[in-house]
Amino acid sequence: MTQSCRHCGTPLTIEFLDLGHAPPSNAYLPPEGLARPELTYPLRLRACSDCRLVQTEDFAAADALFTEDYAYFSSTSRSWLDHAARYAEMITARLGLGPDSHVIEVASNDGYLLKNFVAAGIPCLGVEPTDSTAQAAEDLGIPVLRAFFGEEMAGDLPKADLIAGNNVYAHVPDINDFTRGLAAALKPQGVVTLEFPHLMRLVEFNQFDTVYHEHFSYLSLMAVERIMQAAGLRVFDVEELPTHGGSLRIYACLQGADHAQTGAVEALRAEEAARGMGEDAYYMAFQAKAETVKNDFLRFLLQARAEGKSVAGYGAAAKGNTLLNFGGVKPDLVSFVCDAAPSKQGKLLPGSHIPVLAPDVLRARRPDYLVIFPWNIGEEIRAQNADLAAQGTRFVTAVPDLRISE
Ligand SMILES: [Zn+2]
User: What residue spans in the chain does CATH classification 3.40.50.720 cover?
Assistant: First the structure.
């Protein structure tokens, strides 16, 4: 049975990416987990030939995948906190927000963003379904409604001058209902800003390792404008951000609102069109690019193995798991992966079953090669491990293409 587009209902005939089967990217195994079967789910993306929304293929038992509580606390990342503080300052000035305004953040997490509005005396409300992060926000004095955001509940919210959504839009299963909810909760001149990874950069830089089950939609301006329009909204400004390998921040308002469209919208529309994002061929070419990256990475691992060189990894996160499982890599080729998070240490990566160890073992083991999986913070990791490089360890990144330091 052919799946229909989650936005426009067109049968999805374009295969964009097939990564085979993979376990949930955050399903780290305790060592005793090896005595049990491990669940894997198809990891395939299709593109809509009409609205150009790239989306995960539906699969059976998807609900079981999302019932577990993988709480991630945004405030653990210093650079993300800085990003949020700069945004709050910018948008407060741009929209002239003050004590009579109302700000809603969808997926407000642990309050990493809204605390800036509380500090400025601007009334706000977080919407967050995960209890542990919602509690952390409330401890900072931020009112939080524990709920999934959608049209039905949004109609009951106090109307907002600003609705912010950072890295939530790509993760919602029903993007139409979510978008109608945004329209329902806005004041007549209110503004929505959403940040999400830009599909154009994913394709340009071979970022297939940012694909995982919980990430339902892979978005272009082209697709988002269609989805917004169907919900009674329009995009009036867009910014390109460096976060997550290249993200967009779109500004939208109700169709009848006064916000004038900026030149940036027209410029990005033209760029997406010039790259072929309105044509099927653009989407059909990506699988081959992903396979080239995977094969080059495997060739490197096999050669290192043949030469008797040791290979370790850095960063036990979703990106690495997607790459390792697509390549079928096991501990014979990457003997361990280091991660600073104590909650992951002593566990095994899902699928590949590579052990996760504390970073300090790198000093004792001094691998010949260290593969850096989170390429978006590669610079930071190379700097932290400069002493290893001085003793002969070479750094490796697989995406966007295989790179080995001298
Ligand atoms: Zn569609």
Answer: 288-404
**Of 41, 45, 36, nearest to 15 (Cα)?**
45
CA angle at 355 for the pair 374 and 357, rounded to the nearest 5°: 70
Q: Please say if the pLDDT value at position 27 is more than 70.
A: yes
Distance between Cα 53 and ligand 1 center (Å):
6
Predicted confidence (pLDDT) per residue in 375-396, tens digit: 988 888 999 999 999 999 999 9
By C-alpha distance, which of 94, 59, 244 is closest to 169? 244
String of DSSP letters for 99-138: TT--EEEES-TTSTTHHHHHHTT--EEEE---HHHHHHHH
Q: What angle do CA 124, 126, 128 make, to 5 degrees?
A: 175
What is the whole-number distance in angstroms between the Cα of residue 76 and the centre of ligand 1?
A: 36
What's domain 288-404's superfamily in CATH?
Answer: NAD(P)-binding Rossmann-like Domain (3.40.50.720)
CATH 3.40.50.150 residue spans of the chain: 74-278
pLDDT band at 251 (very low <50, low <70, confident <90, very high): very high
Question: Cα of 299 to ligand 1 centre, how many Å?
Answer: 38
CA–centroid distance, residue 25 to ligand 1 (Å) = 26
pLDDT digits (tens, 9 = 90+) for 313-351: 999 988 999 999 999 999 999 999 999 888 899 999 999
Kindly give the distance from the C-alpha atom of residue 120 to the centroid of ligand 1, in angstroms, as a whole number: 41
84 alpha carbon to ligand 1 midpoint, in Å? 32
Comparison of pLDDT for 247 and 1, the residue scoring more: 247
Q: How far is the CA of 248 from the centre of ligand 1 (A)?
A: 20
Dist. CA 278 → ligand 1 center (Å): 12
Ligand 1 center from residue 107 Cα (angstroms): 25
Assigned CATH topology for domain 74-278? Rossmann fold (3.40.50)
Spacing, Cα 160 to ligand 1 middle (Å): 29
Written as six digits, the tokens of 275 are 């790259």
Q: Taking the complete model, does pTM exceed 0.70, yes or no?
A: yes
